[in-house]
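Sat 14:20. Reprocessing the chain from the morning session after the first attempt stalled halfway. Input below, unchanged.
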Amino acid sequence: MLEQIEQPLQIVSSWNAYQAACPTRLMLNRIADKWTVLVLGLLENETKRFSTLQREIGGISQKMLTQTLRGLERDGLIARTVYPEVPPRVEYKMTPLGNTLVGLLAALRDWSETHMDEVLQAQRDYDQAQQAASNIEAASGVRVVRF
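Finished this time. Tokens:
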């Protein structure tokens, strides 16, 4: 009997996000959007209505929530269900494809919340250094060009 040698699965993809015309850039744009991260985070564990999403996401306008939900639905990440009631009831839920992003987006939210103090300190340090350089330029009359 011949033994079969298992080969590692090799996945060949023609998608390359570093190429200007690659559609994966559009997907990166979608999933890197703050509203997308927040909407998918709320839909992670339960189906929600539009008004609930808007109430739970502080600062999102009706227009932006509508655009975000339409884009997520078009990309197959969420499903929209309209119930024939008066007034119509509309609910949104994650699709199996959308569920594949849940862990990744949760990690981004967690990282942001965990490291926000460090980021704010880095911003303050940077701004102070820029201000100090501007003060030196003003006092010396020499313009420093930064790249």
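The mean pLDDT is 88.
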